């Protein structure tokens, strides 16, 4: 086969908007070898925009004597004749080329096309980015001149060889299933797949770990570790052998230096285990707390033959534990031990459901088809079936809901699919493990469901523990929203649509099928109408209540707390009536499903699939009925905080309803602490003023059962950080918000001159962030900094962070979730700006409710709730800057209260001792310049 790889440099992103080609690079491949290259500069007959010149290095003077496109069109089409066209993002390159050809009187290209972005996504689904330069780094492909056409085309050709090699190593069944999807993909793979299938027709796949079942090829193995034996040392000797010099760690790392705090933490945890006590351990950044808690966990588990749970909040920390810390432990501990990762069902692929969707599911949606192709390849590689291993397109996560293990209501152990279930495999691994790593969400789900999800345990270490109360509250509470409810209704469908209900109705053999279809359709029509009415009513109600002093979430949604007096208002009583009607419609649908089950002929071969599908529908409808009851009735067994949020940026009816307990302490005391022998909480931020009082009260841990320990960071903060506080900022409390934001933006840009951007700016309100974003873009004359703003720039938190790190001079603006859990080590981050001290807005629904509760109990909500929360969040924000002993940076706090208010000392005392400069902004910038460049 003959392939021609093309790449274009253009004056803009769209030929329809006067974009023109300024360079074309072409690489010819024949017999799996590069045979020829060609590159041509083209005169676009228009000026090249400065940012394009900056990106490509192509300037107007270089193209003024170059040929026009029409002069080269014949030569270009001749090279492309009888060839596959390969391009990285082929729609762009082929589309641009066709527009130029047709506008110059040439016919459109009809070549078969291969898109290396699409193929990379399918064949290498675990890569984090599919930009050409990232793929070049990943595959170690030499890239002479990024953003020049020939260099990009040459690297794309080398990438194609890697993709073709991967395709040629896939099993027959995988290629056969891919062939069935090929017509909906952008790449024309049919001939390539046919040729390869013909070659493989009578060959066995060489990998014996690949299983072949019902036309599906997938990897699944249960690795057995060596037989375990106790660690034949006392705990002190065990730590000596690891921490002391010379010891296991100094043999593993030539530059190893013992950290006193790390050993201290290990000893405290083992003391808590031995005494069957709970513990709070605050360990400063750089302590090495992961290793510090893993060492006593392994010793306890192996020597006492018991299982320990380690729970984290972020998947990032789970990955670090599994990919870095556990392999290190296996090197330094000579006794074998077993570790397993356990997540909720919704993280694991269900192969039976996936096969059903491959064979019978819709092929209309491109994201769904692309996701199926990605999953087909991934299951030949994954040993876990955990979807977090790979990147899916946006719509792919919607498809994954249909094929995740979450759809398993129960799984019959006699079913052949039981032994091909990734979720069941994860459960078996967890059951045999000494250490099970999980997340706070599953830990709380397990706790509030009579410990039915995780294997039994008595000791647990909770890392990132400052999130635990919030996670527990969310899991005990609920969320209802319009979009999800309508999505569910559309997913269930009517009897006339090719959806869930239609499938179970067709599979049944009941006599009154038409009558049941009519009953279901009528109930569904009424339900969809009343969902629309209910959320529209709540939206109008919230906006009417919140005409002034609107509470907003960190994403800018308007918030309203549903209080006792809310239930007396006519509009809310109407909402209660609508909710009651909705529950009635759902009950009618449940009645139809129950009749289908009762009348179903049990000898039918499809009974299992039928009952599973109906069970899934029943679960969804019953949950909605229960949630509507809790949200709209005034009294509940546990005192709940309820509130509504309206997203003004979203489409009509972007309305969300929430509830969570007003006090988790008694619930956790009864359901968790009294049930477990030893719960260890650890984080870099658990105290205020060296006291654990706040966190102890919020979680409900009895003093008599508790050990506490504070371990200082080993970093030299006094040499690594300068903290700057301006004396001349406008006072925001007198309504000078616009002046204050202007001063913040001036300081940001002045400080950015010192640090070359590389700055994270933390806000406490989305409105202020948005104002600052708009103002910064106005104030920059030459757009020297890339501004990336949470909630304005599209993308997840991790995507925004990656974008920030990919630019040389960038400023990242973030609200609530950016105050923690964002690691940007080294020179990527040199300055941290805090616009305001992170006090929760007093009208935030949860804070308002808890504050009112405290007042009624005769307590001081500011000292007992507001200040501790703000101090802990401040510590988290401060911790974003210094992530290693080599990091240096500036913290600029725009809020003078840290020096002028009586409570300011609590903030400064909560962080390591650093030089604090309290001067005019001009003086501070001179200080920053002198220190940063010394």
TrEMBL record:
Where on this chain is DEAH box (motif)? 463-466
Give all residue intervals belonging to the Helicase ATP-binding domain: 248-509
List the taxonomic lineage.
Answer: Bacteria, Bacillati, Bacillota, Bacilli, Bacillales
The molecule here is called 3'-5' exonuclease DinG
Q: Which GO terms describe its molecular function?
A: DNA helicase activity; hydrolase activity
Q: Binding positions for ATP? A: 283-290
Q: What does this protein do?
A: 3'-5' exonuclease.
Kindly give the InterPro entries that the UniProt entry links to this protein.
ATP-dep_Helicase_C, DEAD/DEAH_box_helicase_dom, DinG, DinG/Rad3-like, DnaQ, Helic_SF1/SF2_ATP-bd_DinG/Rad3, P-loop_NTPase, Ribonucl_H
